[in-house]
Amino acid sequence: MTLLWIPLLSLLGSIISSMTNTLTRNQSTRLTLLMPIIALLMTISLAPTVFSGEVIRESFSWIPLLGIEIAFRLDGLALLFVFMILVIGILVIFYARYYVSNNDSLPKLYTYLMLFMTAMLGIVMSNNVIQLWFFWELTSISSFLLISYWWQKSEAREGAIMALAITGAGGLALLAGLLLLGDMVGSYSLDVILASKEIIQNHALYEVTLVLILLGAFTKSAQFPFHFWLPHAMAAPTPVSAYLHSATMVKAGVFLLARFYPALAGSDIWFILVSFTGLTTLLFAAYVALFKHDLKGLLAYSTISHLGLITMLFGLNTELAAVAAIFHIINHATFKASLFMATGIIDHETGTRDMRKINGMWRYMPYTATLAMVAAAAMAGVPLLNGFLSKEMFFAETLHQQLLGSMSWLIPVLATVAGAFAVAYSARFIHDVFFNGEPVNLPKQPKEAPRSMRLPIEVLVALCLVVGIIPNFVVDDILSAASLATIGGHVPDYEVALWHGFNLPLLMSAIAVCGGLFLYSQRRYLFKFQDSLPSLNAKKMFDKAMLSITNWCQAKVSKIENGSLQRYLTLMFLIVLLFAGWPLFEMNQLGGQKALTPIDVFNAMGAGLLIVGAISTVIWYSNRVVSLIMLSVVGLMASIAFTRFSAPDLALTQLTVEVVTIILLMLALFFLPQHSPRESSSMRILRDIGISGALGIVVASICYALITRPLDSISAFFLANAKTGGGGTNVVNVILVDFRGFDTLGEICVLGIAALGIYKLLINLPLIMPTSDSKGRPWAKERYPILLASISQSLLPLALLVSFYIFLRGHNLPGGGFIAGLVTAVAFILQYIAHGSHWIGQRLTINYRKIIAVGVAIALFTGVGSWFFGRPFMKTWFDYFNLPLVGEIELASALVFDLGVYITVVGSTLMILASLGQLTMNESKKEVNI
Amino acid sequence: MELLYASCIGVLVSCGVFLILRARTFPVVLGLTMFSYAVNLFLFSAGRLSLNKAAVLGYSSEYADPLPQALVLTAIVIGFAMTAFVVILAIRGRADLGTDHVDGYEVEVPVKKIIKKRKVKP
User: Fold this and answer.
1) Using CA atoms, how far apart are residues A727 and A719, in angstroms rounded to an integer?
2) Cis peptide before A598 (omega within 30 of 0)
3) Which residues, other chains included, contact A513 with Cβ-Cβ below 8 Å and sequence gap of 6+?
4) What is the DSSP code string of A814-869?
5) Are the C-beta atoms of residues A151 and A157 closer than 8 Å to each other?
6) Both ends of chain A: CA-CA distance in Å?
7) CB of A172 within 8 A of CB of A213?
8) The overall pTM is greater than 0.80
9) Cα separations (Å) of A138 from A7, A14, A283?
10) In Å, how far from its chain's centre is CA A323?
11) Could you point out which of A423, A573, A653, A870 has its C-alpha 20 to 30 Å from the C-alpha of A466?
12) Which has the closest alpha carbon to A97: A204, A217, A239?
């Protein structure tokens, strides 16, 4: 369980931080730190096992049918990343406590940070590629939240959207690639994929898969030409940049390269795509970084450049290069995180990040300056620091490749040029900020930052130094474990050491340092040259592209979606016609083998009435009242059909529903015009008759084909078990309250939701109240005829008695909660009609919303109740008891469930009709004649 | 009998669809109601037609298929809830918009103008 706990603890930390709003900032920080520290301790306890070369695995079944499981694995590579994520995460949390001002919510930042941490841990520890992708998307989403932390600023919002758009699009490409990969090897398990290099690389779709996966990795790692989101993401608070843009988010892309290295690398196309993308990014970003006046802009481009370096190393296809890449991942994370934090201090204490204003900080903040200078030296690749070691390895690897044939010498030269630019921008970071005269127009008087804010930087800078001086002692275990996991099989002999003797890489380093310093000394001319170049604004291009895509979609949508309900429905009906009609043509014979039943005179009459009613509804549709009356004939015939064809429960339901529906539609007519204008053109009528006729023919044919074929049904089970298992003889009711009780629960919920929706729709309704009917005749003065009033009043107890009887007998004879509920509702509605809602309101104060809630709750808890007796959800309990005088009676929990159904039906129906009916009484509102 | 039953459903579907395709809310609701009668009868018939075989144990020797009946029973009630919702929506729409016309724009507005109006401003 340990592996699962690592991301789980982090998620828990996110939840905990979100609840620390009322606590002080220190308490919030301490509580947030707790979970990642526990996770770190757990990781440390697992480390020796991983160092010994073992891979720890854990999995839980999730969707076994799709081969998807929750699976975690911890190998050397994952362990390295888990360490980086947790250690730098802890330092950033600590640092953010002092960085975030009192006006901003610290718990909000912590919640997002921890969520992000969870996502990162999930990526690096996943043993299932679909799960990996899930966490991958989660990093995109949580980084969106983090970048837009200062949502009041438009640049933060725009930067967040840009990051989400680019990395999200890359994520989709990645998903496609991973699905293809899973399809090739027949499993989504990472273990299987990593072991199937042969299958993958010989597959016809290898190139496509590779490009898709690389798109995911390159967008995330801000590789050229997808790099432009990263500088804009610098709108995030600096702790966020220190975490996301040094150690984690952008490293997820290179992690992906390392993760799939055993399965995907080694081919020519891998080399071309990966190493050239890396080289381009390395050179381009190192050049641009020099000209950035914004401190964080410089660091952003430097990050892009270093990511390019790592990418290029993975592309070189040699095992030593992969080792160097991993080593540089560690080193870059440490010095870049500390540089971001130092920048945060400078920004915090001076109020600006513009290097043209910030000068001579050495005098104001000597400690921070020292730390930043050491870290910047590591970035430049100065000896005794960790950056030097991995850069040497990089130079050595560029010498050992023969990838461009006779032009292979170009690569080390270009690498040296990039190294020189790295030295130049590092020199600028040191010289321009800490020396170079006096500060210009600073918004704040600079001073040294508090000790606690410097502490995380001290830790990281110490790491830079220790790794740089005694590399074997510190990183050997983790580096060899991670390399083993990346390369797979065996790790080449390599030596990480400060001194390799005088050799070519050392010379390249020396050239780079001298060249870089020379470049920096000539910066004035370089800046002038750069200013004279035409500027390419990536953001404007991105905005323009986004706008044109949005407008294009909008134009297409408004062509399809023109606001005509009939048009949408026509299209849908045509599609139904196509898909339902087509199979009919492929059948040989419409009728089946089942013997037909003869037509008797009653059925013929009923059918005749039904058809006449339906056609009359259409013919008189412009006179709405008449057509409503015709419709009620159809409904009545439908319920008679149910009676005739052995479905008494359905007949009762249909009959009562018919009553409430017609009352409802009558009420509705009060608020709607009483006539429909005949406005369709003849062509339109012809078209509609065509569609509706064709649909009628298709449905009738399907129905005929269906009912003339013999029945093979699962109902024998219900019939056999209704009495013994469900305790009732009315099988339909037993199915409703027992076998399919969960369905019924869902259905009464829908009913309740519809009623609540209606209640909401009727609030603040701007009424259009007619004072007379369409022919100008005023409404009848006698609103509540005495005859109806007195009859309905005496009918009420009788109706309630009947509904009670129907309810009770429901389990064994036709009836039950639905029908009884409708009968009760009809009885009450009659009172409303006869007396008006005012009269009812004086006698009964009913809150129908509460009634619905009580009904659903009763049904739900009856279902849950069976758990307490150790039986499955919704399982009926019943037994027989002997009562004196009454005789044997049956008690079943189904009856209680049915009571819930009953109450919900009564509440919903009455709520719908009573709240609409009440509106007709509302005379205080303005009356508008139509 | 089967032929007659199927024809009835066909007629109901045709009439329902024709009403749904009218341009005003009330005929649409009438059409939907009629359509739902047709759907309920259709689903019910999946258990085949049988006379005097109600699925109440002990009242006959053979029983009609109870499962479609149970499903249709809840469908009828939910159909009512949905009809009610649509009707109230129609009333609300009329009250807010002043018309019960739902077949696109009553006065012909050139499509281009509408697109322009909806365009996102940078």
Assistant:
1) 12
2) no
3) A380, A381, A382, A420, A423
4) S--HHHHHHHHHHHHHHHHHHH-HHHHHHH----HHHHHHHHHHHHHHHHHHHHHT
5) yes
6) 72
7) no
8) no
9) 13, 14, 31
10) 36
11) A423
12) A239
Q: How far is CA A176 from CA A197, A209, A214, A321, A555, in A?
A: 19, 8, 11, 28, 28
Which domains does chain B possess? 2-118 (1.10.287)
* Phi, psi (deg, nearest 5) at residue A678: -85, 95
Helix (H, G, I), strand (E, B) or coil at A732: helix
Q: For chains A and B, what is the number of CB pairs under 8 angstroms?
A: 331
Q: Do A615 and B51 make contact, defined as CB atoms within 8 angstroms?
A: no
Q: How far apart are CA B104 and CA A563, in angstroms?
A: 4
What's CA A677's distance to the chain center, in Å? 47
Instruction: Dump pLDDT digits (tens) for A203-248.
Output: 999 999 999 999 999 999 999 888 889 999 998 999 999 999 888 8
A567 burial type by CB count under 10 A (0-12 exposed, 13-18 middle, 19+ buried): middle
Largest Cα separation within chain B, whole Å, is: 75
Sign, CA dihedral A498-A504-A510-A513, equals negative
CA distance A427 to A442: 22
Q: Are A154 and A134 in contact (CB under 8 A)?
A: no
**Residue range A61-99, pLDDT digits in tens:** 877 777 678 899 999 999 999 999 999 999 999 999 988
Contact of A256 with A217, CB cutoff 8 Å = yes
| Torsional class of A365: left (φ above 0), alpha (ψ -120 to 50), beta (otherwise) | beta
Chain A positions touching B26 (Cβ under 8 A) are 624, 668-669, 672-673, 676
Between the alpha carbon of residue A110 and those of residues A6, A11, A17, A31, the distances in Å are 17, 11, 6, 10
The rounded Cα B52 to chain-centroid distance in angstroms is 29
Structure tokens at A709: 């074929």
A718 with B56: Cβ contact below 8 A: no
A482 burial type by CB count under 10 A (0-12 exposed, 13-18 middle, 19+ buried): buried
DSSP character at residue A595: P
**pLDDT of B122:** 44
Interface check A763 vs B, CB under 8 A: no
Q: Where are the beta strands (DSSP E) in A622-701?
A: none
Query: Which chain B residue lies closest to A634 (C-alpha atoms)?
Result: B34
A737 residue type, one letter? V
Residue-level pLDDT at A687: 93
Count CB neighbours of A694 within 10 A.
16
Structure tokens at B73: 């029973």
- Determine whether the interchain pair A607/B4 forms a contact, defined as Cβ–Cβ distance below 8 Å: yes
Q: Residue A493: how many CB atoms within 10 A of its CB?
A: 7
ipTM of the complex in this document: 0.87
User: Where would I find the H helices in A206-275?
Assistant: 206-220, 229-232, 238-242, 249-259, 261-264, 268-270
Using an 8 Å Cβ cutoff, are A270 and A315 in contact? yes
Of B1, B16, B95, the CB nearest to A768: B95
Q: Is A573 on the interface with B (CB under 8 A)?
A: yes
Please tell me the total number of residues recorded for chain B in this structure: 122
> Which residues in chain B are contacts of A668 at CB distance < 8 A?
26, 29, 87-88, 90-91
Residues A733, B66: Cα–Cα separation, whole Å: 9
Inter-residue contact A638 to B41 (CB < 8 Å): yes
Which residues from chain A sit within 8 angstroms of residue B99, using beta carbons? none
Q: pLDDT digit string (tens) for A467-524?
A: 888 888 878 888 888 888 888 767 777 777 777 777 888 888 899 999 999 988 888 8
Q: How many CA atoms lie within 13 A of A796 on its CB side?
A: 15
Residue A892 C-beta-side C-alpha neighbours within 13 Å = 26
Q: What is the rounded CA–CA span in Å between residue A256 and residue A486?
A: 10
Cα R_g (chain B), whole angstroms = 21
